[in-house]
Design brief:
The N and C termini lie far apart (43 Å). Helix content is 75%, strand content 0%. It is built from 8 helices and no strands. By secondary structure, the protein is mostly helical.
């Protein structure tokens, strides 16, 4: 897969627009769903998806193959999502100032939730987590990435990611327990 991406990137850099369209077809859905999980709504996820695709179009020539294309794209999505979350927090702050689960090792919360209402509740709870904790939680549970892969995406240490994940998991489980 990485070789295919490498070839498509090289073709695009040499002027082949069809190669870029193939990359968009390959990654657009993944970009959208990661942004959707980070943001919690369609409008923001759609906005981030468009921004990421524009950035890819403009900056793909700077991609240096030090990581996989997938990792590079996720870094962009994560940065854009966190920036939008922070902008919304600031906007909300100023507008407001104007007027029985157990934690287990490798507990896989997502796979054990089969009830649609519980999934909606989880999405709602996810929006209450700090952006960094939400990002790690989503990448571990939804994207099933290792801490090492997440470290490459976020630029954060594995130890810090584990701490963020632990805190996120505790908050999610506590809020689920309190709502039942």
């Amino acid at each position: 897969m990485e070789n295919e991406d490498k070839e498509l990137v090289k073709e695009y850099i040499s002027g082949n627009e069809i190669a870029f369209n193939k990359l968009v077809n390959k990654y657009q859905s993944r970009i959208y769903w990661h942004a959707r999980k980070m943001m919690g709504n369609h409008e923001d996820a759609d906005e981030i998806t468009q921004e990421v695709l524009i950035i890819l179009y403009q900056k793909l020539h700077t991609f240096n193959f030090n990581s996989s294309l997938f990792t590079w794209i996720y870094k962009i999505i994560s940065r854009r999502s966190i920036n939008l979350i922070n902008k919304k927090k600031i906007k909300n702050f100023f507008s407001l100032s104007d007027g029985n689960m157990e934690i287990k090792e490798n507990y896989d919360l997502i796979k054990n939730i089969d009830d649609k209402e519980k999934l909606r509740k989880l999405d709602s709870i996810m929006q209450t987590l700090p952006a960094r904790q939400r990002e790690v939680f989503l990448l571990r549970n939804y994207e099933e990435l290792s801490y090492e892969e997440i470290s490459k995406i976020t630029g954060k240490s594995v130890g810090g990611l584990k701490a963020n994940y632990f805190h996120a998991l505790n908050k999610v489980l506590e809020k689920f327990k309190n709502e039942e």
